Amino acid sequence: MKSNSANSGNTPDLRPKAEKILKKRKGESSDLPTEDLLRLVHELEVHQIELELQNEELIQARAGMEAALNQYSNLYDFSPAGYITLTQAGKIHEANLAATRFLGIERTLLLQKRLINFVKPESLPVFNDFFKQLVESQGEISCELALGSQEGNPFWVQLEATCFEGGEYSRVTLMDINERKEAERNIRQRVKELQLLYDNGLALSQLLNPQQIAEKITELLENRMDWHHIVVRIFDAEKNGFKVLSVRHASLAGDQAGADLIELLNKSISKPKDGLSGRAFVTSRVLRSGQLEQEQGYIASFPGMHSGLYVPIRIDNNSIGVISVESHEPNAFSEDDERLVSTLANQAAVAFENASLFEAAQKELEERKRIELLLAEEKEQLTYRVAERTANLNKSNFDLALALRAKDEFLASMSHELRTPLASILGLSESLQLNTYGELSPRQTKAIVTIEESGSHLLELINDILDLSKLNAGMFEVSLTPSVVEQICQSSLHLTKGMSEKRKQHVTFTCPDTTITIHADARRMKQAFVNLLSNAIKFTPVGGDLGLDVQLDEIKQQVKITVWDKGIGIQPDQMPKLFKPFTQIDASLSREYAGTGLGLSLVKDIVELHNGEIQLNSIFGEGSQFSITLPVLASKTIHTQELNS
């Protein structure tokens, strides 16, 4: 019995547990009739308990297996990827729910079907090559192909499979790449569209007639979208209204629209604010609607329209026209359609502008030709007149030159005659101030000083007029001899020292230590510097600063002599007047600062007679700099001297 019970148990280690449980059930005080009976009963009870324990373990194992199976089923059936077990004959042995969804058939109907039956015709070559590699190669292979019925849309998947390698089955994974393929298709479509737009842009750029441009646009749109009619309108500023340039109608596709249809459209939408076309024109914004019957202000050019796309043609954000497309179908136009028409509108705007410029250029050329003909006729008439007038002008110019020369000779002669009595007046005034004819009272002395100052001023004016007259008459001469620049400058400063001391001004003089020699008429150059210094003193306030600087350029062999001041300065628009004779920069200044306006004109002429040049730099309210540049013979080292300190 013992051996039988031991053999009946699949797991011998259960017996001790069974005996222990039986002992607990019977207790210590069991009273059995015989020893054999007790042993038999004991064996049976232990065996029963062993069976119970085995059953419990089996139940737990089954539950674990069911849980694992459920987990596997969830992972297998509800995975986003499709899984197929494929036989060497190409039949489907197993498939999860994702695979059935990809293939579009129930799982019960899918098993034992050949996978090639679900491949779209265009992908059959790819699948055949894939399956051949699956049978003959090793490792893992993959491909992309389209699945679906003959009538349905293709469903793109990527197949990844483990080769048979002598086995009975191959595991195949199907990954959904439909969105990627759709994106690639859209990209190819966009590239094709851009190429089309590029070609259209080139075509439009070669057109110079507005109607031909509009017809090209409607021709391009004709096969691009679901439309009922396409209209290109341009704004006519003279009539303040729209003008239809081109129309495409569904019933007349590919043909030029008739005059009646164009007249109908011109009447229905004629003003810039009419309908949705007018709204797009006025706002310069694209308008797309899938429910035209609900749009406020919509004007139905044709009955039964539900969708509309209205795109303004703009140049520099200003609308010049509108492209209108309408359809029977609701929501017929997409964002891609809007983008396409907007791009066409931009190309059309450039083409229309080029056409407008070309038309304007043609009109201008015609006008030019007309004017050229008139000018040619006028030229023939003027030739004789010019010849006649030239002869008269030559005679007049000769007479005028004689008159000017006579005037200059007269002024020179009169200036000389005026200087003689004026010299006597100045001499007598000086003698009276020296008390040569007796003592004078303070009032008499003051009057004599006034006479001398007025006479000196008058003498300066006469000298300036005399010099200017000589210049104009060609009688002004300079005697060029080697002259030292520093000596000329010192003499000029000495002559104006009294004027600057009277106004308590600070005058500085800067000059290189080395002797600088120039070919010059020292007296005339001194006259020029005195004129410039006098102006600086006159236009610098009492107690102000001015000076004379000498700078040497050894490389260019030039000396630059600058008279500067920190006076009232000169406004930029007044500078061109400075070097003209008898001219002052401001009438108000002529009242405040005495002068005839001859000084700077004489300075300029004197400098030019010395092969030099004069330049002016001035900041209004801060001061002026008059710089004279002359060729030199010698140079070096700078020293600075302050005068009137």
Describe the structure.
By secondary structure, this protein is of the alpha+beta class. Helix content is 51%, strand content 20%. The protein contains 16 helices and 18 strands. The protein has a 6-stranded mixed sheet with strand order 16-17-15-14-12-18. A 5-stranded antiparallel sheet has the order 2-1-5-4-3, with helices on both faces. Helix 13 (485-502) packs parallel to helix 14. The chain is elongated and about 190 Å long. The N and C termini lie far apart (150 Å). Mean pLDDT is 78; it is low at 1-10 and 587-591.
Features:
five-stranded antiparallel sheet, alpha+beta, single chain, about 650 residues
Q: Measured on Cα atoms, how large is the radius of gyration?
A: 58 Å
Report the average pLDDT across residues. Answer: 78
Q: What structural class do the secondary elements suggest?
A: alpha+beta
Binned, the helix content reads: 40-55%
Strand order of the largest sheet: 16-17-15-14-12-18
Amino- and carboxy-terminal Cα gap? 150 Å
Largest sheet: 6 strands, mixed
Write the layout of secondary structure elements.
Blueprint: H1 2-8, H2 14-26, H3 35-77, E1 82-87, E2 92-95, H4 97-103, H5 107-110, H6 124-136, E3 140-147, E4 155-162, E5 169-176, H7 178-205, H8 210-221, E6 229-236, E7 241-249, H9 259-268, H10 275-283, E8 287-289, E9 307-315, E10 318-327, H11 335-433, H12 442-473, E11 481-484, H13 485-502, E12 506-512, E13 517-520, H14 522-538, E14 545-553, E15 558-565, H15 587-592, H16 599-609, E16 613-619, E17 623-631, E18 638-643
Parallel strand pairs: 12-14
Antiparallel strand pairs: 1-2, 1-5, 3-4, 4-5, 6-7, 6-10, 8-9, 9-10, 11-13, 12-18, 14-15, 15-17, 16-17
Helix pairs in contact: 2-3, 7-11, 8-11, 11-12, 12-16, 13-14, 14-16
